[in-house]
Amino acid sequence: MDLSPGTNVAGASDFFAVTPHNTDDVSYKPVRLFIGVGGDVNVKSIKGNTVLFKNVPNGTILPVFVTTVLATSTSATDIVGLL
Prior knowledge:
mainly beta; disordered N terminus; globular
């Protein structure tokens, strides 16, 4: 996990692996995401909007809360949900 300046894991009390899926929500929602191996990350917001984050680097914590990591167009791997 990247703990360099500018990353924020404060308040994360638990962690779990996230498998992208087009219909299943993440186990606990909403969550922030740690991206282990970079790529594109397609997510659904707590209001139901979708956005594709392009070229997310290895070790990034996305500073948004999501309910679903969509398999369609997600190429990043080793994704961890932060509670």
